[in-house]
Amino acid sequence: MNRKKKSIFPYIPGYDNNTVLKLIFFISGAYIILAVSWAISMIVYTSADNYNTYFVPFISLPHLSDFPGHWWTLFTHAIFHYAPGSFMELISNMLWLYCFGSVLQMLVGKKQIVPIFLYSILAGGVFYLLAQMLPGELGKCPQYMLGPRAGLMAICVAAITVSPQYRFYLTETFRVHILVVAGIFAVLMIMGTGFYLPVIAMLLGGGLVGFGYIKLLQAGYRPGEWMYSIGNKLESIATPNEQAINRKQNVRRNIVLNSMQEKPTATKEKRIDALLDKINLKGYNSLSAEEREFLSRAGSE
After folding, report:
1. Which sign, positive or negative, has the C-alpha torsion 291, 294, 300, 301?
2. Is the pLDDT reported for residue 74 higher than 80?
3. Where along the chain do its domains lie?
4. CA distances (Å), origin 99, targets 26, 210, 218
5. How far apart are CA 14 and CA 18, in angstroms?
6. Which residues pair with 150 in a beta bridge?
7. pTM (global) more than 0.85
């Protein structure tokens, strides 16, 4: 008896139904934008000084003291990778995102990917900033904090929480337990932190969000539903209401038709009156053949 085995890419939906793939394209596009900015800076100024002065500080998580003036970086830090030096990090992160994101998307649906990612990058950013309050070297952090580390950790933990027994089938006979893959991922993530405690705290914050989000889903809550409700309302505002447009067009059409019907009637009556006046003044014989035919048709209606 043949058993259906899971692949490392268990089910690949089309782009329209694949939120994980859209997120990968979005983050990759952000990297390209930053890389182009770096290239322009190098061409114009022959150095990366302006790039590091006017671009990177405004998208990366800052030191805690600078955060009030850069609050938006709680969102932007996870979208970008430091370009161009972190290209391999981008490739690695997107592979991990697809690996765990595809499993999570298959198990809980595409609508849960973006909320988990957004909640986790916010929580990870907050943990990162709070950890800087640790005394001395414990609170030391990198100069620029970029990359979706918290989001990746959240999606990994969420996938494990949903299905801790899941296995990736690399071939028909060779399979790898998801906990083994997650363990390798976690070790690489921690090694990539440079062992800065604020960065490790960011990973912890992301992981807690992934675990908590799934537990809320399993309890019957929908913590990300409001995002899609707002999106649907905005879409309904931006998208024309075909029924309303058709009703307006029908009203306008009826007005035009009525006006077209009224004008000929009014014109006909005026002409009949004019011909009758002509008959009174000059007699019936003064009418032309066309005028007589017109009166004849009008009389028969």
Report:
1. negative
2. yes
3. 15-238, 242-300
4. 17, 15, 22
5. 6
6. none
7. no
